[in-house]
Amino acid sequence: MAIQKVGVVGCGLMGSGIAQVCAQAGFTTVVREVSAELVEKGLKGIEKNLARLVEKGTLTEAAKGEVRGRLKGTTSLDDLKDCDLIVEAIIEQLPVKRELFGALDKLCPPETVFASNTSSLTITEIAAATKRPQRFVGLHFFNPVPVMKLVEVVKTISTDPAVYEEMVRFGAKLGKTPVRASDSGGFIVNRLLVPYLLDAIRALEEGVGSVVDIDNSMKLGCGYPMGPFTLLDFVGLDTTYYISQIMFEEFKEKRFAAPPLLKRMVLAGWNGKKSGRGFYDYSDPANPKPIQF
Ligand code: CAA
Ligand code: NAD
User: Looking at residue 277, what DSSP letter applies?
Assistant: First the structure.
């Protein structure tokens, strides 16, 4: 089993980053979005990242051309049918992911390996929509994908050990440090990170501190690169809300429950940085302004 061609489904925050690192690592890569506008938006973001690497001198102009040559955008799932591996990075909703993998299962030959970048769903429940649970893993990347060095490689009780080891090697070929995780909702990182982020919102609701003071406390007091509200906006409040619902449903523990403020912000369309507004207002992206609640 040798992975040569990778399909990525979704070219949003995560899919665009995954497509970029696959193409940079030498894999022929096809990334699929639901509309031509979204394909263009995703590829533009990748182009910008690659141009920044050239500016810094970490990538030559010629190498950038080669990376772009290996990367193709499409709106058609059909263009993914000859991929050796398909990595899904679409909205964190089980029925949507299951429908996608059901369609891919019919389209792709039985050897194709399927992977989900889900943050919180169990891989088993997504893989059950296909006839190839033995060739199904979790590949959980971190935002921003080109920068964050980790990938969680998730094995279910059905995953073929040879497929799993190939996926661990694939993660390393992308320049990531693969960690082995079992198929428990949220895997390793989100089991620990999600309650922390939700607790920050609860602290804000209880008036423990303001958005800026809580952010500064964790940055300056604990050395975190971003405070929790900056990170929540960066991850996406819609995505965080889906994750909390899924993890609460799985564990029935209050620490995973969505705080009412999070729910209201998502209902109001405040999805964080990607929508221009979350715990900060990004009208001037270089100078985000905290929202006064
Ligand atoms: N895409 C590509 N590269 C990016 C980037 C992006 N979106 N954002 C920043 N970078 C690059 C910059 O170009 C810069 O590169 P150089 O050092 O080579 O010049 C480097 O990252 C540092 O960027 P900045 O100096 O602009 O800013 P920074 O020092 O604050 O770093 C950061 C930015 C790397 C994002 C840092 O703030 C950070 O690590 N934040 C925490 C991110 C985090 O916790 N991610 C995990 C989220 S949880 C998750 O992903 C799982 C889930 O399921 C929800
Ligand atoms: P995003 O909002 O940036 O992108 C979501 C994508 O889903 C878009 O490309 C959209 O076109 C697509 N989509 C929506 N409905 C669809 C449908 N019915 N059929 C096909 N595609 C559809 O989200 P994201 O942050 O890139 O998250 C994608 C996945 O990655 C989620 O499973 C999320 O949990 C996971 N993830 C997110 C982060 C993060 O920090 N944002 C980190 C790790 C994993």
Answer: B
